[in-house]
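Q: What structure does this chain adopt?
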Amino acid sequence: MATETHKFQVGMFVIASSIIAVAGLIWLGASRYFEKTEPFVTYFNESVQGLDVGAAVKFRGVTAGRVAAIRIAPDNELIEVRMEIDPDVAQAIRRDPTVRATLELSGITGLRYVEIDRRQGDALNQSPTLSFAPPAEVIPSARSSFKAIQAALSDVYDRFMQVDYKGISDDARRALQAATTLLNDERIDAVLTNLKATTQAAQQVVKNLENMTAGVRLAPAVNNATQATAEARQLFTDLTKGKTGQELVRAIVQLNALVQSTQQAVLTMQYTLERLDRTAVNLQGLTDQLRTQPSRLLFSPPPPERQEEP
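A:
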């Protein structure tokens, strides 16, 4: 009798547990039908591998809904992802025109979820254009991070392959050969010697020009001319005021001194102009030689060394 009672209790426990388990499963499965959500849809122009029905839909990292369906769009090009989103989040999405839906990886499992977040820059213009009427309110999409990295790597690879490496290698080889030939040329020593001699000759020309212009003293001549002009002006003023005979004699003496000063100034200026003329002639001769025979600048023999006078 006790054995039968024990069996009955065990049976009732198993039946009750089964009923509770089935009821729990039914409740969990049916609870989503009692949730208040709003339908949205987005379209991706890339593979959605790893995204399954029931995957999470997150708004800025917070779970806000789930993926309700995944199918090919009516244009047979895009992938249509239908979502059910919490009404409060739906209002936030409608108020912000910069939100975009992207596919993101969930850890290292390879599974994906839909991330809705604010975007900026080029991401705002990456949503595909629809040629059909969508079944629900559309959330524009943007390329996923993986797709963006893949596109960037593809662009880098294309640019890398466009580089003419063979041409660069050939040019470098020819440049090295030309440099080797030039360095092995026997005339390189002569060129360097002529270049040194040319530098010394140029330094000597500069010294000669400095010596030729060292004696030019334009400042005294200008000062004398200025003084003579002032004295002439003063003399004219005195004469116009009707001075006495002594003053007239003094004026004549001053005039004589003025004439002498003027003559001295003229001589000084004449000497200066002559030296400047000789300098210009020498420079013109040097310029003509370089114009007619430019090779003399590098290949002319060095000037003879000066012998110091005893």
